[in-house]
Amino acid sequence: MRKGSYAMAGDAGSSSELAITAFPGDVGGEVANVNRWRGQLQLAPLPDKDVPAAVVRFNCNGLTLGVVDFANPTAVVPQRMVGPMVPFEGATWLFKLTGPDATVAKEKSAFLEFLKSIKAAAPSSP
User: Fold this and answer.
1) What is the DSSP string of the chain?
2) Which pLDDT tens digit goes with each residue over 72-106?
3) What count of other Cβ atoms lies within 10 Å of the Cβ of residue 36?
4) Non-local CB neighbours of 3 within 8 Å, separated by 6+ positions
5) What averages of pLDDT result for each successive group of 10 residues across the chain (126 residues)?
6) Neighbours of 70 (CB within 10 A)
7) CATH number of 2-115
8) Residue 15, pLDDT score
9) Structure pTM?
């Protein structure tokens, strides 16, 4: 399921992680994914009707990305998560940048630029 992991150093010894995973199907759907991620930051789940407003969508290289950005400023070390859900060929790819709020916030624009580079691999030849 895990396709890649990257650690990124931040200020004052902090670090964030980019985790790339792929799961078969829709992993419970968008509401479940959003609230699972919120739970990982110790945030309350959103009501189903509020989830669409929490997801920013964009298309890139023929893929549709639904990106969330959640922060928990009340954690002992304030945490943040930015990441898209990317449905592709019957699977859901998840790209999560997580870590201290300030570190992730600083890297957010670079992370969003990275996401624009994602594209499906060319089919392999027989």
Assistant:
1) -EEEEEEEE-GGG-EEEEEEEEEETTTT-HHHHHHHHHHHTTPPPPPGGGHHHH-EEEEETTEEEEEEEEEETTSSS-EEEEEEEEEETTEEEEEEEEEEHHHHHHHHHHHHHHHTT--PPPPPP-
2) 999 888 999 999 999 999 999 999 999 999 999 99
3) 13
4) 20, 21, 22, 93
5) 84 86 91 95 96 94 94 92 93 94 92 91 65
6) 19
7) 3.40.1000.10
8) 84
9) 0.88
- Report domain extents, the chain: 2-115
Phi, psi (degrees; rounded to nearest 5) at 98: -130, 155
Q: Is the dihedral of CA 8, 107, 62, 95 positive or negative?
A: positive
